[in-house]
Write a structure and sequence with these properties.
The protein has about 675 residues and is mainly alpha-helical. It has 3 domains: about 270 residues; about 140 residues, Leucine-rich Repeat Variant (Alpha Horseshoe); about 130 residues. It has a two-stranded parallel sheet. A two-stranded antiparallel ribbon has the order 3-4. Helix 22 runs parallel beside helix 24. The protein is elongated, with a radius of gyration of 31 Å. The N terminus is likely disordered.
């Protein structure tokens, strides 16, 4: 990357990098900085390119770690960056490409160095590296002790104050990425960080007043999904399709500018995937999730989480219910649209979960939307493609459904939304189906997948809880949805009989031998009976609350009536079976009276007539089925590793050596 360098392989020998990491201190006023910061290349926006860059510069970084206590060159570089950011807003307004270009380059180098420093030392050691100056070897500066806070505050100001233009896109992205890197200390600890120097800076002092503006800006970055401008936009216009970007710059920049080196190439064509994505939106969302999941300080709750919990719609003119210094307003319509469009990513689903669970204003708004299918359908697709998704993504999608189904209005409205041609549902052609029936189909499919593959009780419980919440409002169930409800019960019944048979055989075999311990079939039987009871309660809830609205369910029940025989006298199910048994007997009798060989249409007609004739007081009333999602104790033990696994696995703008990671194992994401 020197005057003649043009490839990554030459970086370790680059004269400017060697001087930066060398034994000689460099004053912040030295012309060297103009030379160092005058390189032009497209900033890497994927982890593969950054891996190449890190491998090429690791020797330089290690040398700086060793020499910086004597030279203070890291502090000098940061001061150079800080001095240049003071004019950034004016530079953006005046289209001063050169000034923004060099400020971006300074921040890019700082970010690369920080990532290596943080992965190799404690926060206390890192803080010391910010205090070293070019006085005597190992001496400390008094005025520099807050250089960490000054840099953090500067990055936040840059994000919230610099207008997002083509020429400022790269430096805005770099500022967001650098904040993520600052917080990445967590990656190198197995335990959740509850007291962190960086967290303290962000939750107190000079950074605190920017909390709401930072959260709002990051949300708007996610909402807008601004695509990355064409490569080289933040520098100068290219003269040729693949040519160099170095021109004679008559603005006082020292000679000896770095020539272009390419990672994807400044002049190379971006891939279609990169053309469609927004690195800034992706990184902003990841930073928002990291900030929202920081642990509370001993004396202060996490202000970023407070901001996320309390913001309101710009259309809402009512006063905030309680004084909150971090409250703000945002356009809910734009936020809703972005959430609907971005659910293919884990991080967007996690954001939706957080907003529905923690922000009552967002939850109320979402539940009042008349186009709720735009949000629910992407969530159902996540569950439908369960084989392709990681377990955390599936859990988040399922919990979102559970939260939505806590609302009776939602449970009624989904049966009024009629969908046409659901192309991604492959088991059966669905030319027309209600959103409610589709939701039932997908949740039942998830249960069946879980029974045969993952066997996760938590997944089972939440699926059944969502169905139970909806059951009293089941309306006009599609015949296929009704069939699948009874088919699931059939599957559970077979599993129950199989476990019962295994337990009996095991018990017989053990009578003649005391050598080997018995498998715990009693526990398996208990679990399966809990699930069966839940299914019976769901069917019962539908029959007692909306029998006349669901002839297809009654039809499916009658068609498979033999399934329920074995449970009529079972002590665990006798009470709940009374209503189901009554319905089966009542409608069976009416069908027998109508004669043999009835068509499907005629059977349904008899069922509809019978539903009106059946006295409601004959059906025993049970307590309403209502399940509410409750976050587990110490949710940070789940969410913090999950969020950092998303950061680690993100294809955009960051790379860490997997061998350095302590927070989670590589297969946990």
């Amino acid at each position: 990357m020197g005057a003649n360098s043009s490839s990554i392989s030459e970086l370790p020998e680059n004269e400017y990098l060697k001087k930066l990491s060398g034994a000689e201190p460099i004053s912040e006023n030295d012309p060297f900085w103009n030379q160092l910061l005058s390189f032009s290349f497209t900033t890497p926006t994927n982890s593969a390119d950054l891996k190449l860059l890190e491998e090429a510069t690791i020797s330089v970084c290690k040398s700086l770690v060793e020499k910086n206590p004597r030279t203070g060159n890291l502090g000098s570089l940061i001061k150079v960056f800080l001095s240049r950011t003071k004019e950034l807003k004016i530079s953006a307004e005046c289209q001063n490409h050169l000034f923004i270009w060099q400020a971006h380059n300074a921040l890019f180098i700082i970010c690369c160095l920080l990532k290596v420093f943080i992965s190799r030392m404690s926060e206390e050691e890192l803080q010391l590296h910010f205090t070293y100056e070019e006085k005597a070897p190992g001496s400390y500066g008094t005025e520099c002790e807050d250089l960490v806070e000054e840099l953090l505050c500067c990055l936040i100001q840059l994000i919230v104050e610099i207008p997002l233009l083509d020429i400022t896109y790269s430096i805005s992205l770099e500022a967001v990425t650098t904040l993520i890197v600052f917080l990445s200390c967590q990656l190198f600890h197995k335990e959740i960080l509850r007291e962190s120097i960086i967290h303290k800076y962000l939750m107190h002092g000079r950074c605190l007043p920017y909390t709401s503006r930072l959260v709002k800006t990051l949300l708007y970055n996610f909402i807008r999904q601004e695509r990355s401008p064409p490569p080289g936009t933040h520098v100068f216009q290219q003269q040729t399709d693949g040519g160099g970007l170095l021109y004679g710059i008559a603005s006082g920049v020292a000679t000896g500018l770095w020539t272009v080196f390419t990672l994807g190439g400044v002049g190379s064509k971006p891939t279609p995937q990169l053309e469609q994505c927004s690195p800034l939106a992706n990184q902003s969302l990841l930073l928002l999730l990291v900030l929202a999941n920081l642990t509370d300080a001993p004396d202060t709750p996490n202000p970023y989480r407070q901001a996320i919990m309390s913001f309101k719609n710009t259309q809402d003119s009512t006063a905030f219910s309680s004084p909150n210094p971090h409250a703000f307003q945002i356009n809910f319509n734009s936020l809703y649209t972005a959430l609907c469009e971005q659910q293919k990513s884990d991080q967007a689903t996690l954001l939706l979960y957080m907003l529905l669970h923690q922000n009552s204003n967002v939850r109320t708004y979402v539940l009042a939307r008349t186009d709720i299918e735009n949000l629910v359908l992407p969530i159902l697709e996540i569950l439908y493609h369960v084989e392709e998704r990681n377990s955390h993504h599936v859990y988040m999608a399922l919990i979102i459904l559970l939260i939505l189904t806590e609302d009776d209005g939602f449970n009624r409205s989904i049966h009024e939304v009629i969908l046409k041609n659901i192309t991604w549902y492959a088991e059966r052609v669905l030319t027309e189906i209600s959103l409610g029936s589709l939701l039932i189909l997908v949740v039942i499919r998830t249960i069946q997948y879980n029974m045969t593959r993952t066997r996760d009780k938590y997944l089972h419980t939440n699926c059944l809880a969502a169905l139970a919440n909806m059951s009293a409002q089941f309306r006009s169930l599609h015949q296929y949805a009704a069939q699948r409800i009874i088919s699931l019960f059939s599957l559970l019944s077979k599993k129950h009989n199989k476990v019962l048979e295994q337990a009996t055989q095991s018990l017989r075999g053990s009578l003649g031998s005391n050598d080997s311990p018995l498998p715990d079939y009693a526990q398996d039987l208990n679990v399966i009976e809990e699930v069966i009871r839940m299914m019976l309660e769901i069917i019962n809830s539908c029959l007692t609350n909306s029998l006349h609205h669901n002839p297809n369910l009654v039809y499916a029940l009658l068609y498979k009536r033999d399934l329920f025989e074995q449970f009529r006298t079972h002590p665990s199910f006798q009470d709940i079976m009374q209503n189901i048994d009554l319905v089966i007997s009542f409608f069976s009798s009416r069908l027998e009276q109508a004669g043999a060989e009835l068509s499907v249409e005629r059977v349904l007609e008899i069922i509809k007539q019978g539903a009106v004739a059946l006295p409601k007081d004959r059906l025993r009333k049970f307590p309403e089925l209502k399940f509410k999602y409750v976050e587990e104790e110490q949710p940070e033990e789940f969410f913090i590793p999950y969020v950092w696994s998303l950061v680690y696995n993100s294809a955009v703008a960051l790379y860490w050596n997997p061998h350095d990671i302590q927070l989670f194992t590589m297969d946990s994401g």
